[in-house]
Amino acid sequence: SQTIHQWPATLVQPVGSPLSLECTVEGTSNPNLYWYRQAAGRGLQLLFYSVGIGQISSEVPQNLSASRPQDRQFILSSKKLLLSDSGFYLCAWTGRGDYGYTFGSGTRLTVV
Amino acid sequence: GNSVTQMEGPVTLSEEAFLTINCTYTATGYPSLFWYVQYPGEGLQLLLKATKADDKGSNKGFEATYRKETTSFHLEKGSVQVSDSAVYFCALISNAGGTSYGKLTFGQGTILTVHP
Description:
The complex is a heterodimer. Chain A is an all-beta fold. Chain A contains no helices and 11 strands. Chain A has strands spanning about 5, 10-15, 20-25, 30-40, 45-50, 55-60, 65-70, 75-80, 85-95, 100-105, 105-110. In chain A, strands 2, 4, 5, 6, 9, 10 and 11 form a 7-stranded mixed beta sheet that branches. Chain B is mainly β. In chain B, about 0% of the residues lie in helices and about 50% in strands. In chain B, strands 2, 5, 6, 10, 11 and 12 form a 6-stranded mixed beta sheet that branches. A 4-stranded antiparallel beta sheet of chain B has the order 3-9-8-7, with no helix packed on it. In chain B, strand 5 (about 30-40) and strand 6 form a beta hairpin. The N and C termini of chain B lie far apart (about 40 Å). The chains are: A mainly beta, B mainly beta. Chains A and B meet through strand 5 and strand 9 of A and strand 5, strand 6 and strand 11 of B.
């Protein structure tokens, strides 16, 4: 069966520090991968999506970047965190031509 | 562009009360519609979905009917339980253009609290 792993679950980082959040999918190949952010009291915003290795599309300009070094690995990064980067980050995947999203358990990031 | 509008919360109900959370959308093409639920401290789980007009999605006593004429997908449950307390998100994927990926557009979420 397919599973999605996301870590860490919680993270407290100082302003200006780097960030790396990792997401991996098991039990499938060539998934579409997504990073969403949920700011406090707000809905979910799509940050990045990827349809293949090395293929990254950004939905909104921001302080973050994403990479897909392997087929089932999706990484969210920042060189210097801002206070406004705080939020709940969710990774998700879908199969090709399949609109059934599976979400990871999320990472709660607090920038202090 | 695509957008989803949900009724503002929070919604507070007593156990066994009837629940309605309104959701309306604008989209190009013929979207698929979803309700996701987020329990405290967890990620999102798919609650139900409908892929074409007049379809009814149902799961765990929740129902929602895809109404193309009113561009709505309201969530209902006849008798809520304390365990239903969560945040509920309405969402859509528009398959206009035949893209090979599906980007979910979410509403802002509605917090539901059910008291014993």
